[in-house]
Design brief:
The protein is α+β, with helices and mostly antiparallel strands. The chain is built from 49 helices and 39 strands.
Length: 1463
């Protein structure tokens, strides 16, 4: 459909040109003959006309084809509920099976039971599920109705004002006015904001769970409106992409009446479900509505996963069907032979109305169908309902486990998938993210290097060695927060622009619950605490102790900055002073951090205050210091410079009051004071600057607002913890980010001077470029400067080529700086730090204008917009000048090493899939015990398929020589693989094996069909690290292992980049951490800490599997045992399909008498206590091996059921043989015996006994007698011609009945009891041994557990990790030590430094090998021999042979090696 928009555009032009107040008639000629008619294809793009007077006709025509804003998430309506729900339920083949039986029973010739009786079980099951589905859908209906009836301000064309309407009345093209704390009803393009800078603050917690605010900008050209937005003055047409589910991408352009275009993207789109925060008024036009919004298109609902037990159960049900078919066939053949034995038709063989008898074959076929109806209970229809109920009970106890509750975040475990709880007990592979999953994702600034000079920040490292002490301090200091920041000081106006002028915007405009900062509180299980308002602002992240040697240089650099002017340009870029200034300016400016104050939290500071004159009395200073609990007055003189005003504010005198919520918010702010009431965001109170500022007068120190106490305290809200850490680090050196607007950013220097930079462009971070840049105009020199920060793998390749420099000395210095910086980066990576490179570039006015025009065209483009934007970024981000690099620590979560050690003892293989650098991941692996110092670690990095294949072959040959051959039990790609990691606990122990591989090598493996060799190698590895891997690669690895090895997999992560991996695994677990809730929303289970995984799997996983598996086996046994009683009776009734048990008794048997004990067993039974399961993780292997429910256990139960049914039938038969009892009198003791036997069998299976268990078992047995007595006493003619009247009463008066009911169950269960006794006495099952230990007293139990663990502990490797690979020289001892993480050899390091410098000079176009390479280094971690494959000639002491790698490398690449194998 092509739509012409010329009528609206030229109608508006005609109106403006001729001054008409009304729009012209449609008959007016609007196009000149020579003018081309412009049209758009609505199949490829969306055209939005505004709903105002000028465009109303076009809006009405186009909006008909767009979805309204009414949403409907329900599955049913009143008319469709019954047929649709039945249709869905009959998708389950078991229901179809029983429906077929009901239909067969309605055929007179095959009727076995009463027709109504046959329908009852199926009707009950369908009704229960129907009620459940109906209640769930009704809740969805109520939720939809509440949302659709929510109110919003919509512009009404006729009234020319905003009118209160419902969400469901919103249409595409409507103008919507939203106020603070209102939820956005549709996807809206932002056209106006009351913020002076055209910014609208959003909280996206409803979409991704992130509580830190996001910024959305008004479309370019609309941000300078001085008054309220007028919809009637909007005469533009909007063209954008079709609705899609990509939350992070949006592109389009706005066409103006003069045919110019203005491009916009996701930065101007307000998504449905987000909340307006800290913005008084926002106005926009609706782009997508209803089910076409991005949020609704992403709402696909929970995915259905089938558990392993369910798949096993379906297979066994097919076996039961085969068994049923065999029994029915026997019945049909028996019936035919029985009738054939009569010479004449017997009296019970009744002819039809015509006097004809059925043919023998047809009669046999009818009997086959009759037997299916008779033995239908062999397929357990009630099993499905029972499983659902049991899983609900398991999830209830799982959710209420206090050990899985995190009181810091006030989050219990979330069970989002109700049907796979038992899979938690069968996990064989765990795929984990690193950042935020194994680590805290609390980024702490640790070290930095500037112009090749490294600053180690030893004082800061010492402070971080005892984080728990700092946390405890914050607890003690919480009570003094009211002294440091009184409530009265927190009230301050922040005006916003509106039609009626300015009005104060209060903190109450942001609907948040009060918090108590980051101090730990004991919530006692109560959900009273809310997450901190400011993300990434804990004391651990904010407080940075400056390096003493760098502190004085920073002061000099700040003083040098003030000397700059337009007439006096900056020094050379190689100047240390200028580089330090640019380095900290880049840390402060190059980010998207939002600035707010304690007076108005989450309100941006737009106009920095001027420094005030300082001066106060000594008594006031002493009062302030006493309140702040500072150590001494002398240290305070060197650290603070409060004014009279500030002192009065801090003491809370003569100021208005405020609520406790504002007082609480001060605890999460950064700046002059930390959360514990004392200033700790820099080392000023450590006395570090005393030496550097000797000779300065005391008045000078007091007279410089170093700490900025003259201004309100600043809070920094960042979208990532890395950005927050760098801004806090710059703040520690008094380079303070004071204000940020879309046009400007203000930085306060150490001496108090404020510099306001014009923000010309911001190129945000993305996973492809791996960097971020800002283009600013220097306020002093007027230069246009590009500051860039990003991953070293991205920045180092974009640096200016030193060879292009004409000055040889400058060239040498550049090379030296780059080499030293790279060495420091490698050092940081080996220490487990996250590295970022900082660079800059000065751009001329002409070049910038050309680039800006190019960028503007790219932004306005609708086709290939992303590619054009990427190209423009590459044009700007090149020929950079390296300033330095930073090292940020991401600390391990508490309990991670112990959890990984326990999971590995449980036989679970753990892989780490991360996008971080190789050295960082390896160091974290050692820290969390994923790798041990004695392990042999293979590192494979290559971009060549041939080399990759040869490396895999070499590694496989080595590990096969080291490990004894093991009998394979699994086939992979046609050859056998071991299902478990080769044993290393033999007498001749061999070292464990680890594998490290990068993303490029993974691409080669997937593209080169090398998966089978890769998987075969991983079978010998205790752990695998995949570094620099993309989200797609993560999911591909999970699918590869899951499908090819046919193992149970679990993925755990915390970020959006882990979603695909989480969804690909059998079980996905999300961690509600620092990166939002995307992973949680896509997961099956959500936890707050990695350590919770230990109990979740080892305890709850084991219990859930053990309970459900044994319950399923019990159901099969119960039904087969009971049905066989009817089958044996057919041999004595001529295979007529009759029964000796009343129909109602048979129904009650499964519905009431034997249904409750299995449910209680499945919910509450504990075969082993939680303490023993945690102390002995190897008990988890029983679930991995499916010991409770496998093919063998199924058939053993079937054989046992056949045997017990024989005993339960034939002992009563032999007892009452040749007697004159009727059929029901014969069937009643059989039914009673079967019930007693089945209940006693259940009692033998129970491992946990409580009063509830005993009462339920006894109650079920007694209920049988009560119901039977009542039923037999009242059923006089209810089952004509044979009625069970007074049968049970007669049996209870017969002593033979009691004797038979007592002896028969004993004989039936004797083999089972004998087998269990043998297993308990002589069995080698770990579970049985653990059950014995559980029965011991506590002291003896602890001794037994310790003895067990000593026996299970693997023997040490003699002489350390020895490798048997022969080719290659033996490494010296110092080389071996140098390759160990966190241990370096001076000689080795110097040798490699010299070689690195030599490589920079001589091997510019080649890629060398380095023992400590960051991305692809070849090193020997624990072995004694090394096989090296490298492209460039490397030091001979480290490599045994070299070979050429046919691959080109980009000039100036910082990567040292493209292929490596570590053995």
């Amino acid at each position: 459909m092509a739509l012409s928009i010329d009528s609206s555009r030229f109608r508006w032009q005609w109106r403006v040109r001729d001054g008409f107040s009304q729009s012209p008639s449609e008959t007016t000629p609007l196009l000149s003959p020579e003018r081309q008619r412009q049209s758009y294809d609505l199949r490829q793009q969306r055209v939005v006309f505004p709903n105002n007077r000028v465009f109303h006709q076009d809006w009405r025509q186009v909006s008909k084809g767009y979805s309204g804003n009414r949403i409907c998430t329900t599955k049913y309506t009143l008319l469709t509920f019954l047929p649709q729900n039945l249709f869905e339920q009959f998708h389950r083949w078991a229901n179809l099976y029983f429906l077929l039986l009901v239909i067969l029973n309605w055929i007179p010739s095959m009727e076995v039971f009463h027709r109504e009786i046959t329908m009852l079980p199926l009707a009950i099951v369908l009704f229960i599920i129907m009620v459940k589905d109906g209640m769930e859908d009704f809740k969805r209906y109520l939720f939809d109705r509440a949302i659709n009836c929510s109110s919003i301000q919509i512009y009404e064309r006729k009234e020319q004002s905003y009118v209160q309407k419902c969400w469901k009345d919103v249409r595409v093209g409507d103008f919507i006015q939203m106020r603070c704390n209102e939820i956005i009803p549709a996807d809206i393009l932002l056209l106006f904001s009351s913020d002076p800078s055209g910014i609208c603050h959003l909280e996206t917690a409803n979409l991704d769970g992130e509580t830190n605010l996001k910024q959305r900008r008004v479309v370019k050209g609309f941000s300078q409106q001085e008054t309220q937005f007028e919809p009637e003055h909007f005469h533009n047409t909007i063209v954008c992409e079709k609705p899609n589910n990509n939350l992070n991408k949006f592109k389009g352009y706005m066409e103006h009446p003069d045919e110019t275009r203005t491009g916009f993207g996701s930065e101007s789109l307000l998504l449905r479900g987000c909340t307006i925060r800290n913005t008084e008024v926002a106005v926009g036009i609706v782009i997508y509505a209803g089910h076409e919004t991005k949020a609704m298109m992403n709402n696909s609902g929970p995915r259905y996963k089938r558990s392993k037990i369910e798949r096993r159960m379906n297979t066994d049900i097919f076996f039961c069907i085969g068994l049923l078919f065999l029994m029915c066939l026997i019945g049909a053949i028996g019936h035919t032979l029985w009738n054939g034995s009569f010479e004449e038709h017997p009296p019970f063989d009744v002819p039809d109305a015509s006097g004809y008898f059925l043919p023998v074959a047809l009669a046999g076929f009818y009997m086959f169908l009759t037997m299916i109806i008779l033995l239908q209970v062999l397929i357990p229809i009630s099993l499905y309902v029972s499983i659902e109920l049991v899983k609900l009970g398991q999830i209830f106890f799982l959710h209420n486990d206090l050990d899985l509750y995190d009181e810091d975040t006030d989050m219990p475990i979330q069970c989002r998938a109700l049907n796979i709880t038992e899979d938690l007990g069968q996990i064989q592979y765990i795929f984990s993210d690193k950042t935020g999953t194994l680590t805290e994702n609390k980024m702490v600034f640790r070290r930095c290097t500037i112009m090749g000079n490294e600053f180690s920040h030893q004082e800061n490292a010492k402070r971080l060695e005892t984080p728990k002490e700092l946390d405890s301090d914050s607890e003690d200091w919480t009570q003094y927060q009211c002294l440091s920041f009184p409530a009265k000081w927190a009230q301050g106006p922040a005006t916003v622009r509106s039609r009626g002028g300015s009005q104060p915007l209060r903190r109450c405009h942001s609907a948040r619950m009060p918090i108590q900062g980051h101090s730990r509180q004991r919530s006692m299980g109560c959900c009273e605490n809310s997450p901190p308002l400011v993300a990434f602002s804990s004391p651990l992240e904010k407080d940075v102790t400056p390096d003493k040697s760098l502190l004085s240089k920073v002061r000099d650099a700040a003083l040098w900055l003030e000397t700059l002017s337009n007439t006096r340009p900056a020094k050379s870029s190689l100047s240390t002073t200028s580089s330090i200034a640019d380095f900290f300016l880049a840390l402060t400016i190059c980010n998207s951090v939002m600035v707010s104050t304690t007076t108005e939290p989450r309100q941006r500071v737009t106009i920095p205050s001027s420094p005030k004159a300082l001066g106060m009395s000594l008594e006031k200073i002493q009062q302030l210091f006493q309140r702040l609990k500072l150590l001494s007055l002398s240290q305070s003189f060197s650290s603070t410079a409060p004014s009279d005003t500030d002192l009065e504010e801090s003491l809370g005198t003569n100021l208005p009051t405020t609520d406790s919520e504002e007082r609480d918010d001060t605890s999460v702010c950064s700046g002059g004071y930390s959360t514990d009431g004392g200033y700790r965001s820099s080392a000023w109170d450590q006395g570090d600057i005393q030496g550097s500022r000797e000779g300065l007068a005391q008045e000078d120190i007091l007279g410089s607002p170093v700490l900025g106490l003259t201004d309100p305290e600043l809070c920094y809200e960042a979208e990532s913890p890395d950005e927050a850490a760098l801004v806090h680090a710059a703040h520690a050196y008094s380079f303070t980010l004071v204000s940020r607007t879309p046009e400007q950013v203000t930085v306060r220097l150490p001496q108090g001077t404020c510099l306001t930079f014009d923000l010309l462009y911001t190129l945000g971070f993305d996973s492809v470029r791996k960097r971020m840049s800002v283009v600013v105009r220097h306020p002093l020199t007027g230069e246009i400067i590009v500051y860039t920060k990003g991953a070293d793998s991205a920045i180092m390749d974009l640096l200016e080529d030193p060879a292009c420099v004409t000055d040889i000395n400058v060239e040498k210095k550049l090379k030296k700086i780059r080499a030293k910086t790279q060495k420091h980066l490698d050092l940081y990576a080996r220490d487990g730090l996250r590295t970022l490179c900082i660079a800059k570039k000065v751009v001329s006015e002409e070049d910038f204008q050309r680039w800006a025009n190019f960028r503007h065209e790219a932004e306005a483009s609708l086709d290939n917009r992303d590619e054009l934007l990427m190209e423009t970024a590459q044009h700007l981000e090149n020929k950079l000048t390296l300033l330095g690099a930073t090292g940020i620590e991401d600390r391990l979560q508490e309990g991670v090493p112990d959890t990984i050690a326990a999971l590995r003892e449980a036989g679970i293989q753990i892989w780490v899939l991360t996008g971080d650098k190789q050295e960082t991941a390896i160091n974290i692996a050692y820290s969390c015990r994923l790798l041990n110092q004695t392990d042999t670690v293979y590192t494979i990095n290559t971009e060549s398929q041939e080399i990759c294949e040869s490396l895999l072959n070499c590694a496989l040959e080595e590990v096969k020589q080291s490990h004894e051959p093991q009998q394979p039990d699994r086939k992979l790609f046609g050859f056998c693989l071991s299902s478990e990691m080769p044993s290393t606990t033999a007498v001749t122990a061999v070292p464990e094996v680890g594998l490290v591989i990068d993303g490029k090598t993974l691409n080669i493996i997937f593209q080169g069909k090398l998966e089978k060799k890769f998987l075969e190698l991983t079978q010998y590895c205790r752990s695998v690290l995949c570094c620099r891997s993309t989200p797609l690669q993560k999911s591909m690895i999970v699918k590869l292992v899951r499908d090819k090895l046919r193992v149970m997999t679990l993925s755990i992560g915390d970020g959006a980049n882990d979603v695909s991996m989480i969804q690909a695994a059998d079980i996905g677990i999300g961690i509600s951490g620092q990166e939002g809730m995307q992973a949680v929303m896509s997961s099956d289970f959500a936890i707050s800490r990695f350590k919770h995984l230990k109990k979740l799997l080892l305890v709850h996983g084991h219990w859930c599997y053990s309970r459900l598996a044994r319950m399923v086996v019990y159901y099969f046994y119960k039904n087969v045992c009971y049905v066989n009683l009817l089958f044996w009776y057919q041999f004595f009734c001529g295979f007529s399909g009759s029964t000796m048990i009343d129909y109602w008794q048979m129904i009650f048997f499964n519905l009431f008498f034997t249904s409750l004990p299995p449910l209680l067993f499945g919910v509450l039974d504990k075969d082993v206590s939680a303490e023993t399961l945690l102390a002995l993780p190897e008990l988890y292997k029983s679930g991995q091996n499916s010991e409770c429910y496998s093919l063998s256990t199924f058939w053993i139960s079937m054989i046992d059921a056949f045997y017990q049914s024989l005993i339960c039938f034939f002992i009563p038969y032999l007892t009452y043989r040749n007697s004159d009892i009727d059929v029901f009198t014969f069937g009643t003791p059989i039914n009673t015996i079967a019930l007693a036997t089945i209940l006693l069998y259940q009692a033998m299976e129970m491992k946990t006994w409580t009063i509830i268990h005993g009462l339920l078992l006894v109650g079920s047995f007694l209920m049988y007698f009560v119901v039977s007595l009542v039923y037999n006493a009242t059923c006089v003619v209810c089952n004509s011609p044979t009625n069970p009247y007074w049968v049970m009463e007669g049996q209870l008066s017969d002593p033979t009945f009691y004797l038979v009911c007592f002896l028969t169950p004993v004989v039936a269960l004797l083999p089972r009891y004998f087998l269990l006794s043998i297993q308990g006495t002589y069995g080698k099952s770990l579970i049985v041994k653990a059950q014995k230990i559980d029965k011991l007293p506590k002291d003896k139990r602890d001794l037994e557990i310790q003895s067990w663990r000593n026996k299970q502990r693997p023997a040490p490797v003699p002489g350390g990790a020895q490798s048997t690979l022969r080719p290659g020289p033996r490494l010296p001892a110092q080389d071996f030590q140098a390759s160990t993480p966190k241990v370096s050899s001076t000689a080795t390091q110097k040798h490699m430094d010299d070689w690195a410098l030599h490589r920079e000079r001589c091997c510019r176009d080649h890629v060398g090998g380095d023992l400590h390479s960051g991305d692809s280094g070849t090193r020997l971690v624990s072995g004694k021999y090394l096989l090296e494959l490298s492209k460039a000639e490397a030091p001979g002491a480290y490599f045994s042979r070299q070979m050429n790698v046919p691959q080109s490398s980009k000039r100036g690449s910082h990567r040292r090696s493209q292929s490596a194998l570590t053995i």
